[in-house]
Amino acid sequence: MSLDELVEFYETEIADEMYRAGMSPATDRPSYEWLADHGYSGIAYTLREHHDLTLKQFIVEEVGVDAGEDDGTTGYEWGISDEETIERFETYLRDRQRRQNLADSTIRSKRTRLARYAREYEALHGEAPLVDRVGDRDLQPKEIERVLSVFDVFDDELASNDSKAKHHYDVNDWYVWLQNRAIGTYNPAATVATSFGGWNTDTEGGETKPALRPDQLREILAVCDDGEDRLLVVALGAWGLRRGEVAALHVSQLIPNAEPPRIEFDNRKNGPSSVQLLYGVEDYLNRVEAFDASGWNGYLFPSNAAKSGHIAPGTVNNRFARLVEAAGVTLQGERPTPHACRRYWYNAYQDAMQDLQEQVAQMAADQGSSSAAVVVDKYLSEEQARRARQGVMREQLANVFEGER
């Protein structure tokens, strides 16, 4: 399951079980033992292995349980530079909580979606003066296009149509609130829903977009003219990073001599975490060697024009689009975006897990076990299982990324 799907599963299936047990899903945080006793032990594994989250982090940060007594807007890091927009966000949330009697968890969810919208807007357009721009009707045509470009990214990156619809609802509601208070003269998000199909249901019209296939990634790698282009594709596909994480990669984050090598993130989407580098260390070292150390700021994708010192997420999109076009790769008739590389990584990991189970199937048969998964989970030590997973995944990645240098 994607993170959005896990939240939905928790809020429906697990919450119902908690109600039956006399617990309050809005305020109580179930223990791992309670979840295991009620048949939900697999959620902890999925969160750890696929989403870099502990069970507690998931329930507190993603579901919004037990995260504090107030709405959490004061002191919240919105991640944008426009103070007026931040102030209007916070006033809107306080107003909605007081006048509509919304739960703290609902307010936190709204805040998270508004912040994601504003951050993506700023990443694409350089700044996010959202309030100022809806105060001038002459800006309306261009602002509608800017807002649509944010939802183009959401349409590609968000896992479910339900999540896309929720993001649009909260953003649209905020703009309506600005209009109702004579702060905004128009709503640039009003027609967003009509521009996209299937957002209100997860049935046929809204299936998750496909991942790049190994052969398609090889074709993209084949058109990389230099080490910078290749590292960008490696970071997206072999490391499974988000485009914003790729844009801001700094040499201080990478630890190539660890076992296994890894990237450390102090401020990732779901908090501090690390990503194992099962492939691509050589590409990283080649990139570092290509820089003139005396004039280099340490970013793997530096930019002299940006205040941050590194390229923007939108630049990752543009560079990847150039490579995709040169390679002639399409997905369902459309040009894939960087997120299709991240979906490839998850598919490859799933395949690696299946390959591992097949490798130990004979061991299971020799011991009279009907399940190879039982051997992996119960008879291999955690370290042995981890090394085995790493080895199989490393092979998967090498089969795709080797040979195109």
How would you describe this structure to a colleague?
About 3% of the residues have low confidence. Strands 1-2-3 form a three-stranded antiparallel β-sheet, with no helix packed on it. Helix 6 crosses helix 8, helix 6 crosses helix 9 and helix 16 crosses helix 18. It contains 19 helices and three strands. The chain is mainly alpha-helical and 405 residues long. The chain starts with a helix and ends with a helix.
Structural class assignment: mainly alpha
The proportion of strand residues reads: under 5%
What is the straight-line distance between the termini? 34 Å
Q: Measured on Cα atoms, how large is the radius of gyration?
A: 23 Å
Q: With helices defined by DSSP (H or I, 4 residues minimum), what is the helix count? A: 19
- What is the tally of beta strands? 3
Shape annotation = globular
Mean pLDDT across every amino acid position: 81
What is the strand arrangement across the widest sheet?
A: 1-2-3
Major sheet description: 3 strands, antiparallel
Instruction: Kindly report the oligomeric state of this protein.
Output: single chain
Provide the succession of SSEs.
HHHHHHHHHHHHHEEEHHHHHH
Percent helix, as a range, is 55-70%
Concise summary:
The chain is mainly alpha-helical and 405 residues long.
